[in-house]
Amino acid sequence: MIVVHRPDELEPARRAVAIGTFDGVHRGHRRVLEAARAAGMRSAAVTFDPHPRTVLGNGVELLATLERRLELLAEIGMDDVLVVRFDAALAELSAEDFAESILRASGAEVVAAGDGFRFGRGRSGDLALLERLGFDVRRVPLVDNVSSSHIRRLLAAGEVRQAAHLLGRPPEVEGTVVTGDRRGAGLGFATANLDVPEGLLVPALGIYAGATLGRRAAVSIGTNPHFGGTERRVEAHLLEFDGDLYGSRLVVELWEYLRDEAAFASEDELVAAIADDVRRTRDAVRPS
To answer: Residue 287 and residue 256: Cα distance in Å, rounded?
Structure first.
């Protein structure tokens, strides 16, 4: 898959373009992307960074980093991705200018988008406008109850299995492994402490079963209340793993919410609770 940041960086070709922010690349997004791939010409995704809502003054917690979004687009089989920088100047483009300078300039003949997709200054452009401008528009019906906003609400409540159903894969939390307090190793359960990128959604506090690097992982999202902590941390204990992960990027799948975080009466009780988390992680079933 070829990734570019300007239309003129693309090799000339007749293209079927799927357009959208594609945060999380959920089941609804995949229908749009597959509509472009099914058109019989070179497929491309046109997506935006940063998220348009951020530039327009509405905060949003992302379901995936740009790096992860590109990985998911590659897994689907897109040939090209144009990552358009969304800034104030782009937001002021008329819908017609956007269509010509981004879509036409990319070689788009077919444009696939979800019903209701809007673009251009003041969201004045729609799919009917693209049809009038001569594009072959493939309207993709919205998938009932599937949206990035709904998935964010589910994850904020710790409902990871329901979120997985809408995503078509387990939800994830991503970060770079940094040095922690090393308490886990002292308890017999070493953890990878993740520095999560700013702006990325972190699901509800609690203990989860999940996986990363092809291994099951018991994941703690919380403040370590047993030790009087106040700072939120994301820590993953990889089962049957003994290695140095410092500086590594980890994408951790979340499969099942196991329990609330808690302070225990003794260290022995804490160790017993973690051991039970590990046992339940071994038995967890990956959602899809």
So the answer is: 8
Is the peptide bond preceding residue 52 cis, with omega within 30 degrees of 0?
Answer: no
- For 180-194, the pLDDT digits (tens) are 776 766 678 999 999
Would you say domain 169-283 falls under CATH 2.40.30.30? yes
The pTM for the full model equals 0.94
Phi-psi region of 100 (alpha: psi -120 to 50; beta: other; left: phi over 0): alpha
Catalytic residue among 172, 174, 235, 256: 235
Give backbone dihedrals phi and psi of 189, rounded to 5 degrees, phi first.
Answer: -135, 80
Q: How far apart are CA 92 and CA 152, in angstroms?
A: 28
Q: What is the pLDDT of residues 68-89, one digit of tens each?
A: 999 999 999 999 999 999 999 9
Element (H, E) at 32: helix 27-37
The yes-or-no answer on residue 256 being catalytic is no
2-146: CATH, from 3.30.70.790, 3.40.50.620, 3.40.50.1260, 3.40.50.920? 3.40.50.620
What strands lie across the sheet with 15-19, from one edge to the other?
A: 2-4, 80-85, 42-49, 15-19, 108-114, 136-140
